[in-house]
Amino acid sequence: MRVSTKGRYGLRAMVDLAEHEEGKAIPIREISERQNISEQYLEQLFATLRKAKLVKSVRGAHGGYMLNHEPEDISVADIITTLEGPIAPVDCVIEDDFCNYIDKCVIHGLWSELADAINGVIENMTLADLRDKAIEEKKREEKTVKEKIEVK
Amino acid sequence: MRVSTKGRYGLRAMVDLAEHEEGKAIPIREISERQNISEQYLEQLFATLRKAKLVKSVRGAHGGYMLNHEPEDISVADIITTLEGPIAPVDCVIEDDFCNYIDKCVIHGLWSELADAINGVIENMTLADLRDKAIEEKKREEKTVKEKIEVK
DNA sequence: TGAAAGTTGATAGTTAAAGTCAAGTTTATA
DNA sequence: TATAAACTTGACTTTAACTATCAACTTTCA
């Protein structure tokens, strides 16, 4: 019942991209440095994200990655399901024919409820929400540092 | 973002136990046959459930396992967290000191929300709920079979 | 009363999948 | 042509899912 590093790192990388791209491509190396995630691993994640058309790539010097849609139009669910597959606690919530003996699967209702609860949360949060929160956090941080200096 | 077989099988086994125990211990062999789960694997799961005091064991001939509390008092969360560890999408929701650079972890709020959503579902469903549903399902099944025979 | 059978308890081993890292290849720009 | 970057592939590491074996305990029955 964990979100693996794929989802976690991928989400952080996407928030980073939303924060820093301003019409220009961001190379993986930059994200790697800021987020402290290995370049190789990020490359894999971005390959998947690119195939799902959540980001687009620019090859060659001065290349990198950019978002393929507005941050408002990319949900957390888009990113996580792309990287980790469909969010369902068990297969029989996705594949209808999996539960071939439904009488033995009274627990099915529970899993459906759980899937709905999870999806409700991650579908209603977008990259824009997270980016704005990140920017806000950073301002707060700066203010705190400033105050500390003034006290000294 | 999956519940592993530990949680899934364990939950099925516990529902089976709630359905069939009537003051007497149920051997693993029976549960294994009904639920089609290997005896060896079930033994492992029950060892964990026993240590968590969710079930108690009776050794020797005519022995087996019984619930250690009323089905109304055992939640799905009890069973799943016992078998799979705390339900949290990421560690930093459990361990406060994990998020040592909180400014890099704007996503923390999302994970907390997700954990709350999940726990809300599984804490509010008990073994009694699932057992009752299983019994109901079985009646419905019997009725359907009977109707089919009558039609013939 | 004692041996056989039924059952849990504990541990180690095997296989397959997922996660992670590393190195090399291709493409575009200057 | 050199460099910066995306892309691709392969290998290693960890974890999950079982499987197998044997020890310990308890009842049953001859």
Automatic annotation (TrEMBL), chains A, B:
- Which Gene3D superfamilies does the UniProt entry name for this protein? Winged helix-like DNA-binding domain superfamily/Winged helix DNA-binding domain
- Please give one Gene Ontology molecular function term for this protein: DNA binding
A GO CC annotation given for this chain:
cytosol
Which NCBIfam families would you find in this protein's record? rrf2_super
Organism classification: Bacteria, Bacillati, Bacillota, Clostridia, Halanaerobiales
InterPro entries recorded: Tscrpt_reg_Rrf2 (IPR000944), WH-like_DNA-bd_sf (IPR036388), WH_DNA-bd_sf (IPR036390)
Which PANTHER family does this one have? HTH-TYPE TRANSCRIPTIONAL REGULATOR ISCR, WINGED HELIX-TURN-HELIX TRANSCRIPTIONAL REGULATOR, RRF2 FAMILY
Organism encoding this protein: Halanaerobium saccharolyticum
Keywords of this entry: DNA-binding
Please give the PROSITE patterns that the UniProt record associates with this protein: HTH_RRF2_2
Stated name of the protein: BadM/Rrf2 family transcriptional regulator
